[in-house]
Amino acid sequence: MTRKTTHWIVGPGALGRLIALRLGDHAAITLIGRRPLPLVQTLITPEKAFLTRRVEVARIDAPPSPPPEVVHLTTKAYAAEAAYATLATRLPDGTPLVLWQNGFDCQPRLTARHQGPVLCASTTEGAHVQDETRVIHAGHGHTFLGCLDGRHGELAERLAVTLSAAGLPTEAVDDIRVRLWRKLAVNAVINPLVAHFTIHNGELRDPPFRRMVERLIAEVAAILAAEGIAPPEGEGLAGWRSLIWQVIEATATNRASMLQDVQAGRLTEHEAILTPLLDAASRHRLPAPCLDGHLDALRHRAAALAQPPTAC
Protein backbone atom coordinates (compact mmCIF):
# COMPACT_ATOMS: atom_id res chain seq x y z
CA MET A 1 0.00 0.00 0.00
CA THR A 2 1.28 3.48 -0.90
CA ARG A 3 2.09 5.59 2.15
CA LYS A 4 -0.09 8.66 2.51
CA THR A 5 1.51 12.09 2.71
CA THR A 6 0.93 13.82 6.05
CA HIS A 7 -0.90 17.15 5.91
CA TRP A 8 -1.62 19.55 8.74
CA ILE A 9 -4.63 21.80 8.17
CA VAL A 10 -4.35 24.79 10.48
CA GLY A 11 -7.68 26.52 10.97
CA PRO A 12 -10.71 24.26 11.45
CA GLY A 13 -13.31 26.64 10.03
CA ALA A 14 -15.48 25.90 7.01
CA LEU A 15 -12.67 25.87 4.46
CA GLY A 16 -10.26 23.92 6.67
CA ARG A 17 -12.80 21.23 7.42
CA LEU A 18 -13.87 21.06 3.78
CA ILE A 19 -10.27 20.40 2.72
CA ALA A 20 -9.72 17.92 5.57
CA LEU A 21 -12.81 15.88 4.80
CA ARG A 22 -12.18 15.85 1.07
CA LEU A 23 -8.49 14.94 1.45
CA GLY A 24 -9.12 12.15 3.95
CA ASP A 25 -8.87 9.33 1.39
CA HIS A 26 -5.71 10.73 -0.19
CA ALA A 27 -3.56 11.98 2.70
CA ALA A 28 -3.03 11.53 6.43
CA ILE A 29 -4.79 14.58 7.87
CA THR A 30 -4.54 16.39 11.19
CA LEU A 31 -6.90 19.32 11.77
CA ILE A 32 -5.30 21.90 14.05
CA GLY A 33 -6.99 24.78 15.87
CA ARG A 34 -7.10 26.72 19.12
CA ARG A 35 -9.36 24.06 20.61
CA PRO A 36 -9.98 20.47 19.55
CA LEU A 37 -13.12 19.64 17.61
CA PRO A 38 -15.06 16.36 17.85
CA LEU A 39 -13.14 13.60 16.09
CA VAL A 40 -16.05 12.61 13.85
CA GLN A 41 -16.88 15.26 11.24
CA THR A 42 -19.47 15.30 8.46
CA LEU A 43 -19.41 17.12 5.15
CA ILE A 44 -22.76 17.82 3.48
CA THR A 45 -22.01 17.99 -0.23
CA PRO A 46 -23.72 20.24 -2.80
CA GLU A 47 -25.58 17.12 -3.92
CA LYS A 48 -26.91 16.70 -0.33
CA ALA A 49 -24.83 13.57 0.28
CA PHE A 50 -23.21 13.02 3.69
CA LEU A 51 -19.48 12.30 3.93
CA THR A 52 -18.57 11.33 7.50
CA ARG A 53 -14.97 10.74 8.59
CA ARG A 54 -12.92 10.39 11.73
CA VAL A 55 -10.34 13.18 11.61
CA GLU A 56 -7.27 13.50 13.80
CA VAL A 57 -7.39 16.81 15.68
CA ALA A 58 -4.88 18.75 17.75
CA ARG A 59 -4.44 22.09 19.48
CA ILE A 60 -2.21 24.64 17.80
CA ASP A 61 -0.14 25.03 20.97
CA ALA A 62 0.42 21.27 21.18
CA PRO A 63 0.69 19.94 17.61
CA PRO A 64 1.47 16.26 17.05
CA SER A 65 4.76 14.70 16.04
CA PRO A 66 6.39 13.90 13.71
CA PRO A 67 6.09 17.13 11.73
CA PRO A 68 4.00 17.17 8.56
CA GLU A 69 5.06 17.00 4.93
CA VAL A 70 2.65 19.80 3.95
CA VAL A 71 0.96 22.54 6.01
CA HIS A 72 -2.26 24.19 4.82
CA LEU A 73 -2.95 27.49 6.60
CA THR A 74 -6.73 27.96 6.37
CA THR A 75 -7.33 30.57 9.09
CA LYS A 76 -8.96 33.91 8.38
CA ALA A 77 -6.50 36.41 6.92
CA TYR A 78 -6.27 38.47 10.12
CA ALA A 79 -5.27 35.37 12.14
CA ALA A 80 -2.82 33.83 9.67
CA GLU A 81 0.43 35.37 10.86
CA ALA A 82 -0.22 34.66 14.54
CA ALA A 83 -1.11 31.05 13.75
CA TYR A 84 2.02 30.68 11.66
CA ALA A 85 4.20 32.15 14.42
CA THR A 86 2.86 29.57 16.88
CA LEU A 87 3.79 26.69 14.57
CA ALA A 88 6.92 27.97 12.82
CA THR A 89 9.48 26.65 15.31
CA ARG A 90 7.98 23.14 15.04
CA LEU A 91 8.35 22.94 11.27
CA PRO A 92 11.58 21.70 9.69
CA ASP A 93 13.14 23.99 7.09
CA GLY A 94 11.78 23.13 3.69
CA THR A 95 8.25 22.18 4.80
CA PRO A 96 5.82 23.37 2.09
CA LEU A 97 3.24 25.91 3.29
CA VAL A 98 -0.03 26.51 1.42
CA LEU A 99 -1.86 29.79 2.12
CA TRP A 100 -5.64 29.79 1.59
CA GLN A 101 -6.43 33.31 2.80
CA ASN A 102 -8.73 35.82 1.12
CA GLY A 103 -7.33 39.12 -0.03
CA PHE A 104 -3.72 39.96 -0.77
CA ASP A 105 -2.23 41.03 2.53
CA CYS A 106 -0.45 38.35 4.59
CA GLN A 107 0.71 36.29 1.59
CA PRO A 108 3.83 38.31 0.69
CA ARG A 109 4.91 38.59 4.33
CA LEU A 110 4.50 34.89 5.07
CA THR A 111 6.26 34.00 1.82
CA ALA A 112 9.24 36.05 3.01
CA ARG A 113 9.19 34.61 6.55
CA HIS A 114 8.80 30.90 5.87
CA GLN A 115 11.91 28.75 5.48
CA GLY A 116 10.53 26.63 2.68
CA PRO A 117 8.28 26.70 -0.39
CA VAL A 118 5.14 28.83 -0.04
CA LEU A 119 2.19 28.34 -2.37
CA CYS A 120 -0.87 30.58 -2.46
CA ALA A 121 -4.34 29.28 -3.26
CA SER A 122 -7.16 31.27 -4.82
CA THR A 123 -10.38 29.29 -4.55
CA THR A 124 -14.05 29.69 -5.35
CA GLU A 125 -15.10 26.66 -3.30
CA GLY A 126 -18.04 27.66 -1.12
CA ALA A 127 -18.52 26.29 2.40
CA HIS A 128 -19.97 27.27 5.74
CA VAL A 129 -20.08 25.71 9.18
CA GLN A 130 -23.34 24.23 10.41
CA ASP A 131 -22.12 23.21 13.86
CA GLU A 132 -19.17 21.62 15.68
CA THR A 133 -19.50 18.39 13.71
CA ARG A 134 -20.88 19.46 10.33
CA VAL A 135 -19.76 21.68 7.48
CA ILE A 136 -21.78 22.40 4.36
CA HIS A 137 -20.05 22.40 0.99
CA ALA A 138 -22.37 25.00 -0.51
CA GLY A 139 -21.06 24.97 -4.06
CA HIS A 140 -18.37 23.43 -6.22
CA GLY A 141 -15.62 25.79 -7.31
CA HIS A 142 -12.14 25.88 -8.76
CA THR A 143 -8.78 26.50 -7.11
CA PHE A 144 -5.61 28.01 -8.57
CA LEU A 145 -2.32 27.22 -6.85
CA GLY A 146 1.10 28.77 -7.29
CA CYS A 147 4.06 30.62 -5.81
CA LEU A 148 4.14 34.42 -5.86
CA ASP A 149 7.47 34.42 -7.73
CA GLY A 150 6.51 31.61 -10.11
CA ARG A 151 8.81 29.00 -8.55
CA HIS A 152 7.99 25.53 -7.15
CA GLY A 153 5.94 24.52 -10.16
CA GLU A 154 6.46 20.79 -9.61
CA LEU A 155 5.24 21.03 -6.01
CA ALA A 156 2.18 23.01 -7.14
CA GLU A 157 1.45 20.38 -9.81
CA ARG A 158 1.68 17.50 -7.28
CA LEU A 159 -0.61 19.22 -4.79
CA ALA A 160 -3.04 20.19 -7.55
CA VAL A 161 -3.29 16.54 -8.59
CA THR A 162 -3.94 15.46 -4.99
CA LEU A 163 -6.59 18.12 -4.36
CA SER A 164 -8.29 17.42 -7.69
CA ALA A 165 -8.42 13.69 -6.97
CA ALA A 166 -10.06 14.53 -3.64
CA GLY A 167 -12.89 16.41 -5.34
CA LEU A 168 -11.45 19.94 -5.16
CA PRO A 169 -10.55 20.78 -8.78
CA THR A 170 -7.20 22.57 -8.69
CA GLU A 171 -4.89 24.00 -11.34
CA ALA A 172 -1.22 24.85 -10.84
CA VAL A 173 -0.40 28.27 -12.31
CA ASP A 174 2.62 30.54 -12.56
CA ASP A 175 0.61 33.78 -12.25
CA ILE A 176 -1.02 33.35 -8.86
CA ARG A 177 -0.32 36.98 -7.97
CA VAL A 178 -2.61 38.14 -10.79
CA ARG A 179 -5.28 35.62 -9.82
CA LEU A 180 -5.20 36.77 -6.20
CA TRP A 181 -5.71 40.36 -7.35
CA ARG A 182 -8.64 39.30 -9.54
CA LYS A 183 -10.36 37.51 -6.68
CA LEU A 184 -9.60 40.50 -4.46
CA ALA A 185 -11.39 42.75 -6.97
CA VAL A 186 -14.50 40.57 -6.89
CA ASN A 187 -14.51 40.34 -3.09
CA ALA A 188 -13.95 44.07 -2.67
CA VAL A 189 -17.09 44.84 -4.66
CA ILE A 190 -19.41 42.13 -3.36
CA ASN A 191 -18.46 41.53 0.27
CA PRO A 192 -18.74 45.00 1.84
CA LEU A 193 -22.12 45.64 0.22
CA VAL A 194 -23.77 42.35 1.17
CA ALA A 195 -22.30 42.57 4.67
CA HIS A 196 -23.57 46.13 5.18
CA PHE A 197 -27.07 45.48 3.86
CA THR A 198 -27.27 41.80 5.02
CA ILE A 199 -28.38 40.55 1.61
CA HIS A 200 -27.57 37.59 -0.61
CA ASN A 201 -25.25 38.16 -3.56
CA GLY A 202 -28.07 38.07 -6.11
CA GLU A 203 -29.82 41.03 -4.51
CA LEU A 204 -26.98 43.23 -5.74
CA ARG A 205 -28.69 43.07 -9.14
CA ASP A 206 -31.61 45.12 -7.77
CA PRO A 207 -31.81 48.89 -7.36
CA PRO A 208 -30.40 50.69 -5.48
CA PHE A 209 -27.61 48.15 -4.98
CA ARG A 210 -26.81 47.88 -8.71
CA ARG A 211 -25.68 51.52 -8.77
CA MET A 212 -23.47 50.91 -5.74
CA VAL A 213 -21.89 47.90 -7.45
CA GLU A 214 -21.15 49.96 -10.56
CA ARG A 215 -19.46 52.72 -8.54
CA LEU A 216 -17.24 50.18 -6.77
CA ILE A 217 -16.37 48.44 -10.05
CA ALA A 218 -15.26 51.79 -11.51
CA GLU A 219 -12.96 52.46 -8.55
CA VAL A 220 -11.49 48.96 -8.58
CA ALA A 221 -10.96 48.97 -12.36
CA ALA A 222 -9.02 52.23 -12.24
CA ILE A 223 -6.79 50.99 -9.41
CA LEU A 224 -6.02 47.67 -11.06
CA ALA A 225 -5.30 49.34 -14.39
CA ALA A 226 -2.71 51.47 -12.62
CA GLU A 227 -1.26 48.30 -11.05
CA GLY A 228 -1.08 46.58 -14.43
CA ILE A 229 -3.61 43.87 -13.50
CA ALA A 230 -5.93 42.92 -16.36
CA PRO A 231 -9.31 41.16 -16.08
CA PRO A 232 -9.41 37.54 -17.30
CA GLU A 233 -11.46 38.50 -20.38
CA GLY A 234 -12.01 41.79 -22.14
CA GLU A 235 -10.24 45.02 -21.33
CA GLY A 236 -10.41 47.73 -18.72
CA LEU A 237 -13.68 48.69 -17.09
CA ALA A 238 -15.76 46.51 -19.43
CA GLY A 239 -13.69 43.44 -18.54
CA TRP A 240 -14.04 44.00 -14.80
CA ARG A 241 -17.77 44.68 -15.14
CA SER A 242 -18.20 41.42 -17.05
CA LEU A 243 -16.25 39.40 -14.47
CA ILE A 244 -17.95 40.81 -11.38
CA TRP A 245 -21.49 40.59 -12.72
CA GLN A 246 -20.81 37.01 -13.86
CA VAL A 247 -19.78 36.13 -10.30
CA ILE A 248 -22.85 37.83 -8.86
CA GLU A 249 -25.09 35.82 -11.22
CA ALA A 250 -23.29 32.55 -10.50
CA THR A 251 -23.44 33.06 -6.72
CA ALA A 252 -26.86 34.70 -6.53
CA THR A 253 -28.12 32.54 -3.66
CA ASN A 254 -24.85 32.60 -1.71
CA ARG A 255 -24.13 34.34 1.58
CA ALA A 256 -20.70 35.86 1.08
CA SER A 257 -18.05 35.09 3.69
CA MET A 258 -18.09 38.64 5.07
CA LEU A 259 -21.86 38.48 5.51
CA GLN A 260 -21.49 35.16 7.35
CA ASP A 261 -18.93 36.77 9.66
CA VAL A 262 -21.17 39.76 10.36
CA GLN A 263 -24.17 37.57 11.11
CA ALA A 264 -22.07 35.41 13.44
CA GLY A 265 -20.66 38.41 15.29
CA ARG A 266 -17.11 37.72 14.12
CA LEU A 267 -14.38 39.98 12.77
CA THR A 268 -14.37 40.35 9.01
CA GLU A 269 -11.44 40.21 6.58
CA HIS A 270 -11.89 43.84 5.57
CA GLU A 271 -8.23 44.75 6.02
CA ALA A 272 -6.98 41.94 3.74
CA ILE A 273 -9.59 42.70 1.07
CA LEU A 274 -9.84 46.50 1.03
CA THR A 275 -6.49 47.79 2.33
CA PRO A 276 -4.36 46.48 -0.60
CA LEU A 277 -6.63 48.29 -3.06
CA LEU A 278 -6.62 51.51 -1.06
CA ASP A 279 -2.84 51.37 -0.63
CA ALA A 280 -2.54 51.02 -4.41
CA ALA A 281 -4.98 53.91 -4.91
CA SER A 282 -2.81 56.06 -2.66
CA ARG A 283 0.36 55.12 -4.55
CA HIS A 284 -1.25 56.09 -7.85
CA ARG A 285 -3.08 59.13 -6.43
CA LEU A 286 -6.47 57.77 -7.42
CA PRO A 287 -9.68 58.63 -5.58
CA ALA A 288 -11.58 55.70 -4.06
CA PRO A 289 -14.29 57.20 -1.83
CA CYS A 290 -16.62 54.18 -1.95
CA LEU A 291 -13.91 51.70 -1.02
CA ASP A 292 -12.63 54.05 1.66
CA GLY A 293 -16.13 54.49 3.12
CA HIS A 294 -16.66 50.74 3.37
CA LEU A 295 -13.28 50.21 5.05
CA ASP A 296 -14.01 52.98 7.55
CA ALA A 297 -17.40 51.46 8.42
CA LEU A 298 -15.94 47.99 8.84
CA ARG A 299 -13.11 49.32 11.01
CA HIS A 300 -15.65 51.01 13.26
CA ARG A 301 -17.53 47.71 13.54
CA ALA A 302 -14.31 45.88 14.43
CA ALA A 303 -13.50 48.47 17.10
CA ALA A 304 -16.98 48.04 18.57
CA LEU A 305 -16.54 44.27 18.70
CA ALA A 306 -13.29 44.73 20.58
CA GLN A 307 -14.90 46.85 23.30
CA PRO A 308 -15.81 44.96 26.50
CA PRO A 309 -19.52 44.96 27.35
CA THR A 310 -20.59 47.71 29.72
CA ALA A 311 -21.99 46.85 33.11
CA CYS A 312 -25.71 47.32 33.72
Q: What is the CATH T-level topology of the largest domain?
A: Rossmann fold
- Note the overall shape: globular
CATH superfamily of the largest domain: NAD(P)-binding Rossmann-like Domain
Secondary-structure element order, N to C:
EHEEEEEHEHEEEEHEHHHHHH
* Helical fraction: 40-55%
Unreliable stretches covering 5 or more consecutive residues: none
Distance between the termini: 64 Å
Beta strand %: 15-25%
Catalytic activity: (R)-pantoate + NADP(+) = 2-dehydropantoate + NADPH + H(+)
Domain Ketopantoate reductase C-terminal: 175-300
EC number: 1.1.1.169
Function: Catalyzes the NADPH-dependent reduction of ketopantoate into pantoic acid.
Structure, explained:
The chain has helices at 14-23, 80-88, 106-113, 153-165, 176-197, 209-227, 236-250, 257-263, 270-283, 289-306; strands at residues 5-10, 27-33, 40-44, 50-54, 56-59, 70-73, 97-99, 118-123, 126-131, 134-139, 143-146, 170-172. It is an alpha/beta fold. The protein has two domains: 5-174, Rossmann fold (3-Layer(aba) Sandwich); 178-306, Orthogonal Bundle (N-(1-d-carboxylethyl)-l-norvaline Dehydrogenase, domain 2). It has an eight-stranded mixed beta sheet, with helices on both faces. A hairpin with a 5-residue loop joins strand 3 and strand 4 (50-54). Helix 5 (176-197) runs antiparallel to helix 6 (209-227) and helix 6 packs across helix 7. It is globular. The N and C termini lie far apart (64 Å). The mean pLDDT is 93.
